[in-house]
């Protein structure tokens, strides 16, 4: 019973949603809207489970004074402050002034703490890309050389300075002649071509693989062979 | 050209050492390369690419007061790259007297909507609720996108300020995708896939996207099939859009830094390869 | 946020296939018999002081393949609507339940020239059809505005109509003459009744594709059940998993497992859970701790179940620590910071990155490299593969990750579905080749639309 009920729910919901896609009657639409509303509600509840886990783990870390307990304080304090400001703060004109103040505090913390911190972590990527490219991007084989050439071309062609250099080269060779075989923006056009043609072709091949895997997996889940939503799958 | 064995091996050591250089030197070079052009602009001209121009032309031809939806599917981490896009598109829409609806599938995106619309509409006297509205965040991803097709008001009963849907002039007559001129998804995640699947394919919504520079190559296939009307790629996409709307902003300011950063990475890759080849050569045995 | 819903993926397959094979834009709506009833004769081109001329040939017809909640309207422009004239600013569309009205505004189109409008203000819910309490009296009424007023009037949201009714429409041109609103006499169309469809005919090709895929996959599952053996090539990354766990055990350091940023319905996340189950069991047998920081609460719940089950299978249910599988935050970069911090503090011997990743992949892998971990990654995120390949010891690429469940469990039915995917891929490739050849021949030989080659391509078109 413990396994059969979830499998039956997955089967019925899966089949119903597939059929619904092809049947546009208003009953079918109403059913879809109801199922979607349920999914939204469940997603919201899942967040409650996550927050519960976050709080309980950090409190127990603090209680045991386990290594890194200081970070638990930061996490819990950050969570509490943002939650209180976010829930009680409001922009509604009718609300008391202190709630407007809380909302302004929330906005201030978001703009001046969360935005720069998030941006800092993201910006690390640029540094890591530079260092990883320097250490590992090698033209060891023919294919790697081809990839390297395409990468360098796209990197130059995607920035104005690169396009400007291309235009200067064009001028140096053809001297602004209208009979030149390529336009001064040739580097940008070539970059667009690389992205539009070889890149698109490769991306599509991968998409087909992923789409077919999704079909197979959907069927496995619907018929209950694969059960990621419960243990013992 | 000939080398004594000692000189050759010394040379090779140099190249080997160069390959194993402390990564912090690379970080420093890149840092300088990004910061210096930011304060001393090189003034390179941005030439709009086709995917950007297509989106611009589509929005430019929309009739007055037609609603445009922008989905802010990114967090503050990617805001440096995607906010300039949001502002450039919003400014264009406001200039054309279009209405703007902001939504997000990312919980941290909600606060970015208001900021971007306020920044874009400030000079043009555009007002919240009259000309634009932020509907904020709803959990569920694809479920939300599907839900909008059934009825925008069924997913968002109020805007992010708590004002009921029916009382917002910017949403007047907007029921679902049929009433929206175009949906522009600005994303640092795979949200464009969701919008294609559930808004474009299920409801035939007009769709375009703006994504971070690292992601842009992945979305070109959808441009060719017409599923995306246009694509803005990274900060450059924002700069191109600003160029088209003749309103320079953060995108164009960042272009010089990005140009130099790209050239530094190219130089590093070439240097790394030269070092690799040189260190493999040398006296046998 | 789910990246790729499993069901959606299935349905999207043929959309992709058709888009890729044809690259053809959806065709224009089919011509339908005219139901136009123009009530106003078209005057000759009127000078500015005369009233605006109405639009012509107004047609109202049911929008096909829906739940009877839309009517498509089209019209030819008013003779006053010339490209070089600013007199006509657009067209206003009104609807009524009887030919004589009263007509209420359902939409205003601010475009010149050939006009199109879809009236979707219908609802099956009686609650939606009630007029709002504070609604002002319907403006417009019949024909042109009775009182000429300044500016274009603001129309209230139309009250939704019952899809079971019969409706009449009128369309009038409008503009501003010296700042005052003016409107032409209306042209009318109707009656028209919205129709409900039992099958979305635009999706028939998707339906056929879905059925075919289902038959192939279920067929191979059947073969597998009857004991047919399927070969799967060895996957180096998965073989390395046991070595990495062994190393962690020897060093007395924990393992770290990151299931990516995908949601619970993501194929990559589902595959990652199978790998986690296997890692969890080996770790339990060897008594090595496994840390699983999560970004999605639903994934966290599922992963707790998976690891708990692994400990049960290894016969060490008491060693399972629920708190080692924990939620951090769903903010992308805050999550990265948290995982990188865990790496620096806990110094895991091996890190596994399995699932869907975004820009954070390289940051995670570089942090792991700096902490000196053995790193094994697996993802179908194409854009992140180059980063993971350069920084990790082993990387499962795309479908290798999907195959992981079948490979690790050796479950015949999973192997069967893997084989089915291979055959379907061959079919897609064959359809693509045919599509490209036929489209090419069509261009070269100037084949008519009716030729079977071009008809074959149109089978894959999305509508």
Could you give a short description of this structure?
The complex is a heterotrimer of chains A (233), B (285) and C (463). By secondary structure, chain B is of the alpha/beta class. Helix content of chain B is 53%, strand content 12%.
Key terms for this structure?
heterotrimer, A: 233 residues, mainly alpha, 7 helices, 80% helix, B: alpha/beta, Rossmann fold, 2 domains, six-stranded parallel β-sheet, 6 strands
Can you put this structure into words, describing what you see?
The complex is a heterotrimer of chains A (233), B (285) and C (463). Chain A has 233 residues and is mainly α. Chain A has a domain at 138-233. Helix content of chain A is 80%, strand content 0%. Chain A has helices spanning 4-22, 26-64, 69-88, 97-136, 142-157, 160-174, 186-222. Chain A is extended and about 75 Å long. Chain B has two domains: 5-40 and 257-280; 50-248, MTH777-like (Rossmann fold, 3-Layer(aba) Sandwich). In chain B, strands 3-2-1-4-5-6 form a six-stranded parallel β-sheet, with helices on both faces. The longest helix of chain B is centred in the last third of the chain and has 31 residues, at 250-280. In chain B, 57% of the residues are buried. The two termini of chain C are 28 Å apart. Chain C folds into two domains: 31-192, Sandwich (Immunoglobulin-like), CATH 2.60.40; 236-402, Rossmann fold (3-Layer(aba) Sandwich). In chain C, helix 12 crosses helix 13 (452-458). The longest helix of chain C has 33 residues, at 412-444. Chain C is elongated. Chain C has helices spanning 6-22, 126-129, 204-225, 236-251, 267-286, 297-313, 332-346, 360-370, 385-391, 399-402, 404-409, 412-444, 452-458, and strands spanning 36-37, 56-62, 71-76, 90-96, 104-109, 115-119, 167-177, 180-183, 187-192, 255-260, 290-294, 325-327, 350-356, 374-379, 394-397. In chain C, 50% of the residues are buried. The interface between B and C is large, with 43 and 41 residues.
């Amino acid at each position: 019973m413990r396994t059969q009920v979830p499998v039956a729910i997955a089967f019925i919901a899966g089949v119903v949603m597939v059929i619904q896609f092809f049947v546009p009657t208003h009953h079918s639409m109403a059913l879809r809207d109801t199922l979607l509303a349920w999914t939204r509600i469940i997603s919201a509840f899942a967040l409650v489970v996550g927050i519960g886990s976050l709080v309980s783990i950090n409190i127990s870390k603090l209680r045991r004074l386990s290594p890194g307990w200081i970070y638990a304080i930061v996490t819990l304090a950050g969570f509490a402050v943002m939650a209180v400001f976010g829930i009680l703060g409001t922009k509604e004109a009718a609300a008391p002034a202190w709630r407007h103040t809380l909302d302004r505090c929330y906005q201030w913390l978001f703009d001046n703490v969360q935005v720069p911190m998030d941006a800092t972590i993201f910006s690390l990527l640029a540094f890591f890309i530079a260092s990883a490219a320097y250490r590992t991007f090698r033209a060891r084989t023919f294919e790697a050389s081809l990839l390297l050439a395409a990468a360098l071309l796209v990197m130059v062609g995607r920035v104005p300075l690169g396009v400007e250099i291309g235009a200067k080269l064009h001028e140096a060779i053809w001297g602004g002649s209208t009979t030149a075989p390529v336009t001064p923006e040739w580097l940008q056009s070539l970059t667009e071509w690389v992205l539009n043609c070889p890149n698109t072709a490769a991306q599509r091949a991968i998409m087909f693989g992923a789409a077919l895997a999704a079909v197979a997996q959907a069927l496995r889940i619907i018929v209950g062979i694969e059960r990621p939503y419960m243990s013992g799958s | 050209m000939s080398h004594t064995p000692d000189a050759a091996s010394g040379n090779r050591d140099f190249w080997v050492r160069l390959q194993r250089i402390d990564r912090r030197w690379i970080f420093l070079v890149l840092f300088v390369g990004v910061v210096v052009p930011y304060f001393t602009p090189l003034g390179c001209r941005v030439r709009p690419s086709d995917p950007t121009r297509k989106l611009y032309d589509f929005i430019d031809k929309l009739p007055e007061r037609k609603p445009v939806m922008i989905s802010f599917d990114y967090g503050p981490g990617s805001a440096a790259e995607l906010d300039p896009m949001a502002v450039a598109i919003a400014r264009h829409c406001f200039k054309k007297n279009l209405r703007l609806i902001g939504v997000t599938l990312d919980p941290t995106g909600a606060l970015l909507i208001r900021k971007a619309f306020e920044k874009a509409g400030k000079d043009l006297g555009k007002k919240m609720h009259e000309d634009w509205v932020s509907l904020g965040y709803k959990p569920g991803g694809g479920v939300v996108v599907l839900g909008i097709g059934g009825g925008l008001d069924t997913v968002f009963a109020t805007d992010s300020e708590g004002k009921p849907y029916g009382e917002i002039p910017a949403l007047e007559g907007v029921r679902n995708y049929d009433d929206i001129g175009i949906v522009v998804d600005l994303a640092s995640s795979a949200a464009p896939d969701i919008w294609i699947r559930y808004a474009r394919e299920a409801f035939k919504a007009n769709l375009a996207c703006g994504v971070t520079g690292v992601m842009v190559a992945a979305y070109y296939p959808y441009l060719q099939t017409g599923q995306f009307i246009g694509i803005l790629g990274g900060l450059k996409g924002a700069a191109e859009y600003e160029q088209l709307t003749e309103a320079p902003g953060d995108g164009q300011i960042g272009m010089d830094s990005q140009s130099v950063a790209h050239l530094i990475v190219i130089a590093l890759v070439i240097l790394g390869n030269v070092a690799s080849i040189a260190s493999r050569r040398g006296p046998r045995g | 946020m789910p990246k790729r819903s499993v069901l959606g993926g299935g349905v999207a397959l043929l959309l992709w296939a058709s888009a890729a094979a044809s690259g053809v834009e959806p065709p224009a709506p089919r011509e339908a018999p005219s139901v136009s009833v123009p009530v106003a004769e078209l005057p000759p081109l009127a000078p500015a002081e005369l009233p605006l001329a109405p639009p012509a040939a107004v047609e109202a017809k049911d929008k096909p393949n829906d739940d009877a909640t839309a009517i498509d309207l089209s019209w030819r422009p008013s003779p006053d609507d010339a490209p070089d004239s600013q007199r006509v600013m657009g067209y206003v569309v009104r609807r009524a339940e009887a030919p004589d009205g009263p007509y209420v505004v359902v939409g205003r189109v601010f475009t010149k020239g050939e006009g199109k409008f879809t009236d979707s203000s219908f609802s099956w819910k009686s609650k939606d059809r009630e007029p709002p309490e504070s609604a002002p009296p319907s403006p417009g009424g019949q024909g042109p505005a009775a009182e000429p007023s300044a500016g274009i009037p603001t129309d209230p949201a139309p009250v939704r109509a019952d899809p079971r009714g019969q409706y009449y429409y009128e369309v009038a041109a409008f503009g501003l003459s010296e700042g005052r609103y003016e409107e032409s006499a209306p042209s009318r169309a109707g009656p028209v009744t919205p129709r409900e469809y039992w099958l979305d005919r635009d999706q028939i090709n998707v339906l056929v594709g879905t059925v075919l895929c289902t038959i192939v996959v279920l067929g191979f599952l059947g073969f597998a059940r009857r004991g047919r053996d399927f070969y799967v090539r060895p996957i180096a990354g998965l073989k390395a998993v046991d070595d990495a766990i062994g190393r962690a055990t020897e060093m007395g350091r924990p393992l770290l497992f990151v299931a990516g940023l995908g949601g619970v319905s993501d194929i990559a996340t589902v595959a990652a859970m199978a790998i986690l189950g296997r890692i969890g069991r080996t770790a339990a047998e060897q008594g090595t701790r496994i840390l699983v920081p999560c970004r999605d609460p639903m994934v966290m719940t599922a992963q707790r179940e998976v690891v708990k089950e692994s400990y049960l299978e290894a016969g060490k249910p008491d060693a399972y620590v629920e708190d080692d599988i924990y939620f951090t935050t769903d903010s992308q970069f805050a999550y990265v910071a948290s995982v990188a911090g865990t790496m620096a503090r806990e110094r895991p011997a091996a890190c596994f990155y399995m699932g869907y990743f975004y820009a954070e992949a390289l940051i995670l892998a570089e942090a792991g490299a700096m902490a000196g971990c053995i790193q094994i990654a697996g993802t179908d995120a194409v854009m992140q593969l180059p980063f993971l390949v350069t920084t990790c010891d082993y990387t499962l690429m795309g479908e290798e990750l999907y195959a992981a469940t079948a490979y690790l469990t050796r479950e015949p039915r999973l192997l069967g579905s893997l084989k089915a995917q291979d055959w379907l891929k061959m079919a897609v490739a064959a359809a693509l080749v045919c599509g490209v050849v036929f489209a090419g021949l069509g261009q070269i030989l100037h084949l008519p639309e009716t030729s079977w080659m071009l008809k074959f391509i149109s089978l894959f078109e999305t509508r």
